Amino acid sequence: MIPKIALEEHFMCPGFEGYWSGTMDTVPAAGKAAILKKLNDFGEERLSGMDAAGIAHAVLSIAGPGVQREPDVAIAIRLARQGNDFLSAQVQKNPKRYSGFAHLPMQDAKAAADELTRCVEQLGFRGAMINGHTNGQYLDHPDLYPFWERAEALGVPVYIHPADPMALFPALADQPGLRRATWEWTLETGSHALRLVFSGLFDKFPKATVALGHLGETLPYLLWRFDSRAKLYGIKLEREPSDYIKQNFVVTLSGMFSREPLMCAVDALGGDRVMFSADYPFEGARDGAEFIDSVDIDENLRAAICHGNAERLLRMKL
Ligand code: MN
């Protein structure tokens, strides 16, 4: 079994259950309780699951949306810091197996930038995970440029995790089966990522790196169309949309254990931009491992996806 680094693995921080609970209101109570138990565990159950999947190292992140949905800015700043300190204490108990992505109060760009710096430089975190929009504000907003400046200077990835949209998309309103992870989050999160591209954010911060789960939230499949339509609509960017997606984005599997989208992401972005993640405990780490260990791909590519690309991105060595 190839050793793996997993990039989208979640935990629950005390005090954050309320934010998370809302995103689980369509999951039956027993299933929700089982997931919460796994989120709270940093010991035997999580580690034995990682062992069985060959996951040597997991970068942990708070199960969203966390303070991205906190209306009070001061509370968001305080709780984000508290969440990062909680994670740091868990990581310190087992630094070989765990590290962290920072949880950030995007309501205040300066506070978010300072907390990211603290997390990277003092706590050894590998970057940030942001759970979609923050009370309706997306990451391309000009108020957030000081944050991007800092993320770029620190050279760490900013991972955009799915979240519920502010308002229900009319086409999904009477089809609950299409909500959330089935399709709604792909639409929401893919749109968020495309806002960064089409707003020209990467012309201002050309070295910024954004990570997306779910093999890129369908973006790799649509590169040609983005370029073609950007021309038609006269979008003013220094480069073609696909160039930014190829050069400023990396993607992880997170519950997309299927060869067709994997090969699309590899073909579209390059084998050096695709990484393993399980999305534990929302997907089984074992399922992800069985897929990537056995899928019919070149062995060098398998090693790159499982750990080589993450070692380079996160500046770590297994
Ligand atoms: Mn996830």
Number of helices: 14
SSE pattern: EHHHEHEHEHEHHEHHHEHEHH
Largest sheet properties: 5 strands, parallel
Strand content of the residues, in percent? 5-15%
CATH overall fold name? TIM Barrel
What compounds sit in this structure?
manganese (II) ion
Number of strands: 8
Report how far apart the termini are. 14 Å
Strand pairing plus helix content: what structural class? alpha/beta
Mean pLDDT: 97
Q: Characterize the overall form.
A: globular
Low-confidence stretches: none
Estimate the helix proportion, in percent: 40-55%
Q: Briefly, what CATH class? A: Alpha Beta
CATH architecture, by name, is Alpha-Beta Barrel
Major sheet: arrangement of strands: 4-5-6-7-8
Query: In total, how many domains does the architecture comprise?
Result: 1
Radius of gyration: 18 Å
The CATH homology group name: Metal-dependent hydrolases
